[in-house]
Recover the amino acids of this structure.
């Protein structure tokens, strides 16, 4: 990605403004998201070690539960740490970006790419913090009907699947409010260092 292409991405506020179905949910999470002073200091130090400025591109889609859950804390981090810029790319609007990540073996979203001030990509972070994977696995075990619902062409089954995912989105919000946002920030700091 070139700097010129990066600048075509959506700033956080424009990303929120274009959302429809999940806008209220992500806005509520954003209102609750806060980065601890310790993590802010760690991120500031990491950015300084990268030359004082980094740019973060995010590939996502509006329907992605992981993005809805983690982008609020990433936005708070971007707003609070000097030298951090953030742009968001919807895969449906930027198929070339999506294709690039897919060819690199990444199919999950969100995908965050980190660039230094010379526009060298120095790291990536994908999907969710490691600690969330255990919770998602546990959730899937509690919902064995998920596999059948995912492959069904029955319109009623599709509604059941949507309701199941809506419930997961609410559960995820509580996981992140309960401490997983700190895990996101910690893992991002590790990438930036």
């Amino acid at each position: 990605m070139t700097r010129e292409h990066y600048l075509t991405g959506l700033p956080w506020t424009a990303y929120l403004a274009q959302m429809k179905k999940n806008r209220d949910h992500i806005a509520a999470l954003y209102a609750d998201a806060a980065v601890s002073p310790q993590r802010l200091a760690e991120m500031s130090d990491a950015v300084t070690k990268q030359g004082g400025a980094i740019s973060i591109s995010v590939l996502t889609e509006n329907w992605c539960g992981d993005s809805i859950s983690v982008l609020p804390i990433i936005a708070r981090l971007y707003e609070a740490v000097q030298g951090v810029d953030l742009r968001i790319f919807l895969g449906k609007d930027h198929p070339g970006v999506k294709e690039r990540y897919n060819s690199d073996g990444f199919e999950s979203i969100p995908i965050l790419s980190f660039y230094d001030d010379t526009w060298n990509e120095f790291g990536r972070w994908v999907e969710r913090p490691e600690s969330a994977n255990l919770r998602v696995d546990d959730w899937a075990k509690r919902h064995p009907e998920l596999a059948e619902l995912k492959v069904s062409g029955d319109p009623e089954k599709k509604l059941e699947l949507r309701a199941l995912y809506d419930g997961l989105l609410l559960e995820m919000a509580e996981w992140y409010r309960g401490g997983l946002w700190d895990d996101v920030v910690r893992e991002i700091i590790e990438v930036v260092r």
